[in-house]
Design brief:
By secondary structure, the protein is mainly beta. The protein has one helix and 25 strands. The chain has a single domain, classed as Tachylectin-2, Chain A, CATH 2.115.10.20. The longest helix has 34 residues.
């Protein structure tokens, strides 16, 4: 009998210990879910020493900037302005931790700026819209991290291309006249072939768009509940006054009405010159802008890559807030 009681007590102790362990695991899991992961800007920093005479004269430090982000098959691909002679791709699973990948495009000409990469599901090809020496061209690859083969010039005297495909499968190429810095849209018959002529849709008219320099650039299109939202940057691109606003329309060709509360992303609280954004989503459908800030308040091109959430409120107004050196909840990604 004593042996049986001892065995019973040992069994109860084992069960109790197991239950306590299970309870402890559940508490840790709940705490982890409650706290969650965080990120702190900047998420990507790299600098280059640049010496060029064209398309404008510049000599000095240039920080990585003008990011275009593409999400494909569970991975984020980032294509920024870098050493001004080509584009490298940066790869991430979570928008926070980036690894530098291969060089995907190079040029013997100067002024390789502000790319965009578009995936065409119809033929499963990737299209790089490049800026080289003040003109826009297109190159094609079978992979987002593969070498893009040049297909030639699309638009002369232009920079900052962005390809948008509407839900009816129609293509629209947004770009910036250079010089002049007016935003246009070019209807496209395909990712490489124009259809008709361009339409001018945005130019610098408001005070914030004329700080340091009168310009509008870096177009990026979003569609929300049937309306078209064109994000763009304005003010001196090498200054702390660079900022992001948007205009909306009922057609991708406009006419566009600028939001009265522009700019929606601007300097303040140790944030300088936030601008030139692209937009993607995390696994939960949250919008994320990927953009650059100036490293400090000095005039120049020493930029850093940052991410922050965007959202549409109940009235359809686009909201966002830049951050710097402050932990924020990280993108929710499946892993």
């Amino acid at each position: 009998m004593a042996g049986m009681m001892s065995q019973k007590n040992n069994t109860l102790i084992f069960i109790s210990a197991g239950a306590l362990f299970l309870l402890w695991v559940m508490i840790l899991s709940a705490t982890s879910a409650k706290v969650g992961k965080t990120y702190t800007n900047p998420v990507l920093v790299e600098t280059f020493i640049i010496q060029r005479e064209q398309p404008d004269n510049f000599s000095g430090v240039l920080g990585i900037g003008d990011p275009a982000v593409l999400f494909h098959n569970g991975t984020y691909y980032l294509y920024p302005t870098g050493d001004n002679s080509g584009y490298d791709v940066y790869i991430s699973a979570d928008l926070v931790n980036w690894k530098k990948g291969p060089r995907v495009f190079g040029s013997t000409e100067p002024g390789v700026w502000a790319p965009d990469v578009f995936y065409n599901a119809k033929n499963r090809k990737f299209y790089l819209y490049y800026t080289v020496n003040g003109r826009i061209g297109v190159a094609i690859s079978d992979r987002p991290d593969g070498v893009f083969k040049d297909q030639g010039t699309l638009i002369e005297n232009a920079i900052d291309a962005h390809m948008f495909q509407d839900q009816d499968s129609q293509y629209y190429l947004y770009y910036v006249q250079y010089p002049g810095f007016r935003i246009h849209v070019q209807p496209m018959d395909s990712p490489v072939r124009k259809k008709g002529g361009p339409v001018q849709i945005i130019q610098a008219t408001d005070a914030w768009e004329k700080k340091q320099a009168a310009l509008t650039e870096a177009p990026w299109m979003l569609k929300h509940r049937g309306a078209y939202y064109l994000l763009y940057s304005a003010g001196g691109a090498d200054s702390q006054d660079y900022a992001i606003g948007y205009a909306s329309a009922t057609s991708p060709l406009g006419p566009f009405s600028k939001y009265s509360g522009n700019p929606i992303i601007k300097k303040g609280d140790s944030i300088f010159g936030p601008g030139h954004c692209s937009v993607t989503k995390s696994s939960d459908g949250q919008l994320w802008m990927v953009y650059h800030q100036q490293k400090n308040g000095s005039r120049g091109w020493n930029r850093i890559i940052c991410i922050d959430p965007l959202r549409f409120d109940e009235k359809g107004i686009l909201r966002g807030r830049p951050s710097r050196a402050t932990p924020r909840p990280a993108p929710n990604v499946k892993g």
